[in-house]
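Side project, low priority. Logging it here so it doesn't get lost.
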Amino acid sequence: MSTEFQPQNDLERQLMAAQDGQIPPESFIQTLLGSEVFMPVYEKHQIGGFATDTKAQPLKIQTDEGQDVLVLFTSPDRAKGFVRDYPGYGGGLVTEFTWILDKLGIGYGITLNPGQEFGMDFEARDVAQIAAMGNN
């Protein structure tokens, strides 16, 4: 990492605390469920910065096993370096994590802040458990 990770919001502070063992993972998950995240979205058809597609195409990558993994970030700034390798994904949307679970469903993994000093990966079964927690 070229610079030290400086938290920009409560979600990032909680992520750092969870990864450093200062809080249990469950506390971080509860924070995540109540937070907004940045989801890079493909900008195929844009007019003046507005997407003309009615269905957003979020950035997903595949594992070596062929499983889909949704790419999310704790803030738009965290995405800049990563999305350079994915033409068309320069923009995106900041939205509630629970909205993403509601709209995209489950059956995929999630990588939060890939390539960053502080990030987290969730397998598909973890995402299903998190979604169930959010519905309680």
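Brief comment: Residues 24 and 31 are 11 Å apart (CA to CA).
Revisit when time allows.
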